[in-house]
Amino acid sequence: MSIEFSNRMASMRGSAIREIFKYAADPNVISLAGGNPAPELFPNEELAGIAEELLRESPILSLQYGITEGYGELRDMVKARMKTVESIGNAEDELIIVSGGQQGIELTTKCLVNEGDTVIVEEPSFIGATNAFRSYGAHLVGVPVNNDGMDLDRLEEVIAENKNVRFIYTIPTFQNPMGVTMSVEKRRRLYEIALKNHIFILEDNPYGELTFDGKKTPTIKSMDTENIVIYSGSFSKILAPGLRLGFLCAKKELITKIVVAKQVSDVHTAMLPQLLATEFMKRYDLDALIAKMRATYAHKCKTMLGAMDEYFPKDVAYTRPGGGLFIWCDLGHGVDTLLLSKEAIEKKVVYVPGNTFMVDMNAPSSALRLNYSTMSDERIVEGVKRLGDVFANVKG
Asked: Any bridge partners for residue 229, and if so which?
């Protein structure tokens, strides 16, 4: 019997990044594609000790149901950290622990977007978010991203051209996939534009702690006096992604509805990962771990950029991020990087084609995303060299 899929899912496509992982599993393939943190940075020994103690001494707390809002001590710790590190949180805000930042994005969409409503996104943007918006029938409209963030003149035009704009989705710090950071001036103006037009901002900030020089750019949420910013954070890039721990901070009225939506989705975030994160932060220095990540990624990024400077054709444009995990390249000249990826695979190197991050994923893109977080220095250089050969052939 053939299956007739729901309208919501019939046109959905799986992530090209996940498809590329199939090739990346080959040890002979150099993967510059994914967005995984460096596994050597996982505090596995510390977490193993905590897990054994929790399961032996607190089995009921670890393995029983929890409350939907999240484990109370962890929520308090996240609130305190956000206040200290990001200047986030006021009397009208509330916080919920979610099963990874992706769930926070999906639940926000579920609570705010009706089919046909408009969601404005950066273009290019994170496919996990855009697919969440698509799954609820949102009308996606892209706004180009420059080296200092979203094109706000175009944003104002887009708002004027579209009805029922529910929110603006942005990754303002070390943006995925471009690696660029929105300037403070643009953040203020973006907030003012949203406030003037009575539109929410969904600020996704999984990479903000991974600044190479240790200097933080103020979050948009820290400027939020009217509670129009929904802030999504995550432990995936600063502790371990497999714990599937994220959090949402927003106006209490919205969080109350998101709690109901989460009850329908998965009841609550798993207790054991919440307890692992709580105990890790109590016993160990999370900031010291983050500092180690910053130094590692700064080195890897410098290695990749140096190799790109040496081996890429001189007319290939690429970003020079100050943090995060990604570099965005544009080959120009009408090159389709989705088609070109097949030649790269033959050279045993993979990247993510730029069309993956666009509103119209079927349109050819001359851009691509590279990741430097998981490979050794030697494999980064060799992978870039192989790509340089591919690019030189197509552009020659």
From this structure: 201
Enumerate residues 6+ apart whose C-beta is below 8 A from 117: 137, 138, 139, 164, 165, 166
Q: What is the rounded distance in angstroms from the CA atom of residue 5 to the CA atom of residue 3? A: 6
Closest Cα partner for 51 from 346, 262, 275, 254?
275
Question: Is 249 a member of any domain?
Answer: yes
Kindly state whether residues 241 and 384 are assigned to the same domain.
no
The 8-class DSSP code of residue 348 comes to: T
Answer for the pair 226, 195: CB distance below 8 angstroms, yes or no: yes
- Cα of first residue to Cα of last residue in the chain, in angstroms, is 51
Domain boundaries, position 170: 64-283
Buried b (16+ CB within 10 A) or exposed e, 165-176: bbbbbbbbbbbb
Does 31 reside within a domain? yes
Based on the domain organization, do 268 and 293 belong to the same domain?
Answer: no
Those residues with Cβ within 8 angstroms of residue 115's Cβ, 6 or more apart along the chain or in another chain: 136, 137, 138
In a shared domain, residues 303 and 321 = yes
Please state the pTM of the whole predicted model: 0.95
Question: Residue 352: pLDDT above 80?
Answer: yes
Query: Residues 256, 296: one domain?
Result: no
CATH number of the domain that 166 lies in?
A: 3.40.640.10
Place of tokens 């097949």: 342
| Confidence tier at 16 by pLDDT (50, 70, 90) | low
Q: Which residues contact 52 (CB under 8 A, 6 or more apart)?
A: none
